Structure formats: C-alpha cells, structure tokens
C-alpha cells in the first residue's frame, strides 16, 4: 500500500461510514489497496478496478465522495479507518517478520555444524552429489 495520508483516511472513513460491517470492510479495502499497489509496481499501470494503490483511489472505486463528516458517526468511522490501517500494518509487519525468520533459519547452520544447503539431502530427497544437468 502506498503511504497513507489524511485524505486516504478520510476517504476510507467515508467508504465505511454507516456500514454495520465497517471494521471488516475497512480491513478488506486495505488488503485490496495493497494488492493494487503491488499490481502498479509490477505492471507499471493502474489496477483496472482498484486504482493506483492508495486508499483514496480504492475508496473512490467504491463510489464514495470525499466529504469530511465531523458528526459523531463520521468521527467513529474515522476512528475505524485509523484502527483498520493500524491493524493491517501490524499484520503485514508480522508476515514480514515471519518471512525474515524463515530466511534466517534457512541459512543457519545445522546441528552438525554444516550449512543446510551443503547437507546430503535436500527437501526434494535428491542428494547434492548428483551431477547437475546430466
């Protein structure tokens, strides 16, 4: 997901305002926004439905307008939007930390002091001593 700015939060709040499933919808829109951002990074063009990877463009795809609602309901929706972005970021950081731990574990030495990549057996069950490309 692209950097979140105040307009993104206001647009997300407008998209979820008054919805009974506001928290779940906000998290879902965050996930779609991230997917759109990855699409833009890979294909160098806008996602056909979800836009450029910002929460604002994703919210506009829902047909919402950017009108700040300072009523108690609007502020509750803004709180929900902020909480959803925070929760989504924590989940993303958790996934990244898990991936880093897997990478580190893969490159650590095994119990006998050898690197797992240099052991006799790989996950495939084939030995490393086999000639390559034969």
Summarize the structure.
InterPro entries: DUF7742. Helix content is 57%, strand content 0%. It has helices at 6-16, 22-43, 55-61, 72-107.
Describe this protein's structure.
It is a single chain. The protein is mostly helical. The chain contains 4 helices and no strands. Helix 1 packs across helix 2, helix 2 (22-43) packs across helix 3 (55-61) and helix 2 (22-43) packs across helix 4. The protein is globular, with a radius of gyration of 22 Å.
Summarize this structure as a short list of keywords or feature phrases:
single chain; 134 residues; mainly alpha; globular
**Proportion of helical residues:** 55-70%
Mean pLDDT: 80
- SS summary, helix count: 4
The residue ranges in which pLDDT falls below 50 over 5 or more consecutive positions are none
Shape: globular
């Amino acid at each position: 997901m692209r950097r979140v700015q105040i307009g993104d939060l206001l647009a997300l709040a407008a998209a979820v305002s008054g919805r009974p499933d506001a928290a779940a919808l906000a998290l879902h829109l965050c996930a779609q926004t991230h997917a759109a951002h990855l699409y833009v990074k890979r294909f160098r063009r806008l996602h056909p439905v979800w836009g450029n990877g910002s929460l604002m463009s994703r919210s506009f795809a829902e047909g919402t307008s950017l009108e700040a609602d300072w009523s108690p309901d609007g502020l509750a929706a803004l709180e929900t939007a902020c909480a959803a972005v925070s929760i989504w970021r924590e989940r993303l950081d958790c996934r990244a930390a898990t991936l880093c731990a897997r990478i580190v574990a893969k490159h650590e030495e095994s119990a006998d002091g050898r690197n797992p990549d240099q052991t006799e057996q790989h996950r495939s069950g084939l030995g490393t001593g086999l000639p390559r490309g034969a």
